[in-house]
UniProtKB/TrEMBL annotation:
InterPro entries: Aldolase_TIM, RibuloseP-bd_barrel, Trp_synthase_suA. Its EC number is 4.2.1.20. Pfam families: Trp_syntA (PF00290). The keyword Lyase applies. GO terms for cellular component: cytosol. This is tryptophan synthase. It catalyses: (1S,2R)-1-C-(indol-3-yl)glycerol 3-phosphate + L-serine = D-glyceraldehyde 3-phosphate + L-tryptophan + H2O. Pathway: Amino-acid biosynthesis; L-tryptophan biosynthesis; L-tryptophan from chorismate: step 5/5. Tetramer of two alpha and two beta chains. It comes from the Bacteria. One of its GO terms (molecular function) is tryptophan synthase activity.
Length: 239
């Protein structure tokens, strides 16, 4: 199992985010989620919205973000990279251009969010890329069906919110992972949301997850690089 660190591409500048990627790699990170900052990241927390906004203030040229990801791929061939992009960003770049960029640089795993319909998603899948799907902790049937039909990894909510609907048949994360496997889903299951401490990573591993997203906890330590790298190592020790 691995942890997945989130790279706010371009925050506060492209060069600064590149240096953070170096620190991630030095701390032992083997998987990285890299975003294209969206002009309308309406699904994100205020924290991530602000980071994307700041990145676009510094550079609003998506070609530069593509160049930065290519640079990262060349510098860190051993790190598996997942690309996060909003549909509105893909359309601004141009769907065909985005697809070709991903194919040419072996970026096969796409977190495509903010869909207005399935047109862009279907084009990306037909081109041979793998689009992830999100499944909430209480396992809504419609999300299970979408996960069955998807061709990418499953992003499974790791811990429920206090006010969230519960599924009494599958009360634990291990139950959720097992149910997805029983549904015939044999693709990787990466767990995120609520993974803030080393014991949460251990929970994901014991549940049978293939990786754990540790985004915000690491992002909030960017102003203290030694503490950030130490936290990454603490997380990885539980893998």
């Amino acid at each position: 199992m691995e942890i997945i660190c989130y790279l706010s591409n371009g925050y506060p500048t492209i060069e600064a985010s590149y240096k953070i990627a170096h620190e991630y790699a030095d701390a032992g990170c083997k998987m990285m989620e890299v975003d294209f900052p969206s002009r309308n990241p309406y699904l994100e927390s205020d924290f991530l919205k602000a980071r994307m906004g700041k990145a676009l203030e510094a550079c609003d040229d998506y070609d530069k973000y593509m160049e930065s990801i290519i640079r990262l791929k060349k510098e860190f061939p051993e790190i598996k990279m997942l690309v996060l992009a909003y549909e509105n960003t893909v359309l601004e770049i141009g769907t065909e251009k985005f697809i070709n960029f991903c194919l040419e640089n072996d970026l096969k795993d796409i977190l495509l969010v903010g869909l207005s319909n399935n047109e862009v998603k279907d084009q990306i899948i037909e081109a041979g890329l793998q689009v992830s799907c999100y499944v909430e902790y209480h396992l809504p049937q419609e999300e299970i069906e979408l996960a069955k039909k998807s061709n990418g990894f499953v992003y499974l909510q790791a811990k429920p919110y206090e006010t969230q609907e519960k599924n009494e048949k599958y009360p634990t994360l291990k139950d959720c992972v097992q149910y997805l496997r029983e549904c015939g889903i044999d693709r990787p299951i990466y767990c995120g949301v609520g993974v803030h401490a080393p014991e949460d990573v251990k929970l994901v591993k014991e549940a049978g997850g293939d990786a754990a997203f540790v985004g915000s906890t690491i992002l909030k330590l960017h102003d203290d690089i030694p503490a950030m790298k130490n936290k990454i190592r603490e997380f990885r020790a539980q893998c």
